[in-house]
Amino acid sequence: MTMRELSKAQRKWLEHLTNNGPTVRGHTNTAYHCMSHGWTEWFVKFRDGRIERLEGQDTSDADVWLDSITPAGRAMLAAAKEARP
Predict the structure, then answer these.
(1) Quick one: which of 24, 71, 44, 51 has its CA closest to 13?
(2) In what order do the strands lie in the sheet with 62-69?
(3) Is 30 within 8 Å of 67 (Cβ atoms)?
(4) Is 2 within a domain?
(5) How far is 58 from 10, CA to CA, in rounded Å?
(6) Quick one: pLDDT at residue 5?
(7) What is the pLDDT of residues 50-77, one digit of tens each?
(8) pLDDT of 50
(9) Distances (CA, A) of 3 to 21, 44, 48, 51, 65
(10) Cα–Cα distance between 64 and 84 in angstroms, integer?
(11) pLDDT, average across residues 36-48
């Protein structure tokens, strides 16, 4: 598998997640594409304030869906920074 290059928007989104932690997804395709590559994953914030990785649990009490960067996303971002600081 070859390493693909991050777009400016993808790099910006991954940097934002690294700096700010789990974040509500914006209204663009960038976050969707990052998730489809395995660079991000879903977390859920429940009404009682808990934030948990989405792992098949009951989300009927979910308040907000969040994106979070994965180890693969961190590796991709590090490679992108190394190639183009």
Answers:
(1) 24
(2) 23-24, 62-69, 40-46, 51-53
(3) no
(4) no
(5) 30
(6) 84
(7) 999 999 889 999 999 999 999 999 999 9
(8) 92
(9) 25, 30, 40, 32, 29
(10) 34
(11) 94
Q: How many residues are given for the chain? A: 85
Q: What predicted TM-score, i.e. pTM, was given to this entire model?
A: 0.84
Range of the domain at 40: 8-83
List, in sequence order, the alpha helices (H) in 21-70: 30-36
Paired residues of 41 in beta bridges? 68
- Give the three-class secondary structure for 66: strand
Express each pLDDT in 1-24 by its tens digit. Answer: 345 789 999 999 999 999 999 999
Domain count, the chain: 1
Query: For residue 75, is it within any domain?
Result: yes
Strands 51-53 and 23-24: unpaired
Encoded tokens for 81: 């920074």
CATH code for the domain in which residue 12 is found: 1.10.10
